[in-house]
Design goal:
Number of domains: 2
Distance between the termini: 93 Å
Oligomer: single chain
Number of helices: 12
CATH topology of the largest domain: Metallo-beta-lactamase, Chain A
CATH class of the largest domain: Alpha Beta
Strand order of the largest sheet: 1-2-3-4-5-6-7
Mean pLDDT: 85
Strand content: 15-25%
Low-confidence stretches: 1-32
Order of helices and strands: HEEEEHEHHEHHHEEEEEHEHHHH
């Protein structure tokens, strides 16, 4: 009798846990907050896959038989709720988190996840970019000091003062800042494969696209593609030029994504609603059309102001709301104009 009672109690608990795991929250308003100040909505993709949205940023959660894997982890504000939400979807804890790139909305919660026992993985360039971004002020200060010394050296020439400045410049240039974050990260190079009991996840690096180094994840058995910010569904892309991102690399990345897809592939963008191969192809056409429009105006000798005034380049896409995201139409066109300047340098 006791065994039957225990079995009934366990099955009731298990049933309640599974019901929790099947819940799909459809709310997306930022005005809805939990006690920690962040609202993270969990939406089902397939039986073992969910995406967790916070302020339009998508994190993918794979519920493995032994543990859960997260693709990205939101910022420091949302990380506690993201971990809690992922934990409610499965009886197994989150063990791994893979960063797709270095931006804070993807890596800002890394320290919290590490403190919670989650292992952080990133490709080597992403790690370096997180480090550089974290130490941005210090690096800018060192750069300014070198520039000041270099100018002083020119004025002093080969005098004793010049040699002294030169020696100081060399020491400053060779200064080795410890390249370590406050939390450990396991790094990989251009490709990494995670083989689980019920899924194989392949992580592939794309260089000089959205940022200097981006990673996308393909869930082979489920036929699900998590793109990170290599695809922003329904909005203009952001190209991080400071970290060597480029529109040409971005297009090359989209081509890689399209090459992995068939008509049944579920595409999870870094921002925006769930998509398909046809959505990726439409996004590629949008970028190519606007890029060619800007390039044509540039080659005709038009200034940036004249390009921004040419509404025909983006009219069809602005009508669909592409310019209502984080990247406004003028910022997107300005980025395309700078890319045209690099590709077709004008002679003075």
């Amino acid at each position: 009798m006791k065994k039957q009672f225990f079995l009934f109690t366990f099955l009731t608990f298990l049933s309640m846990s599974l019901m929790q795991a099947q819940e799909v929250t459809e709310a997306s308003s930022d005005s809805q907050k939990d006690s920690g100040g962040a609202f993270v909505a969990a939406k089902k993709i397939k039986d073992s896959l969910y995406y967790l949205s916070y302020r339009g940023n998508n994190v993918v959660a794979f519920l493995g038989r032994d543990y859960t894997v997260l693709i990205d982890g939101h910022d420091e504000n949302a990380a506690p709720q993201t971990l809690t939400t992922a934990g409610r979807l499965s009886l197994n804890s989150v063990r791994f988190l893979v960063n797709t790139h270095h931006h804070n909305d993807r890596t800002g919660g890394n320290a919290y996840f590490n403190d919670s026992g989650v292992t952080i993985l990133a490709n080597e360039q992403t790690y370096n970019n997180v480090w550089a971004d974290t130490n941005k002020e210090l690096l800018q200060d060192l750069k300014a000091q070198r520039a000041t010394l270099a100018e002083a050296m020119k004025s002093s020439g080969k005098s004793g003062r010049g040699e002294e400045l030169s020696s100081k410049y060399n020491r400053l240039s060779e200064q080795n800042i410890e390249k370590a974050l406050d939390y450990p990260v396991m790094t990989f190079t251009d490709k990494f494969k995670m083989s689980l009991d019920n899924e194989t996840i392949t992580f592939t690096q794309v260089l000089k696209a959205h940022s200097g180094a981006d990673v996308f994840a393909f869930f082979e058995n489920n036929n699900v593609l998590a793109t990170g910010d290599l695809f922003i569904n329904g909005k203009y892309p952001f190209i991080d030029e400071e970290f060597k991102g480029s529109i040409d690399g971005y297009l090359a990345g989209i081509n890689q994504l399209i090459g992995l897809c068939n008509n049944d592939t579920v595409v999870v963008p870094g921002h925006g609603p769930i998509a398909s191969k046809s959505d990726l192809e439409a996004y590629k056409r949008m970028i190519e059309y606007t890029q060619k429009g800007v390039q044509m105006d540039f080659l005709l000798g038009k200034s940036l102001e004249e390009v921004l005034a040419n509404k025909s380049i983006t009219a069809n896409f602005d009508a669909k709301g592409y310019g209502n995201g984080n990247v406004k139409t003028k910022d997107y066109l300005s980025m395309l104009y700078r890319a045209a300047e690099k590709r077709y340098p004008r002679r003075n």
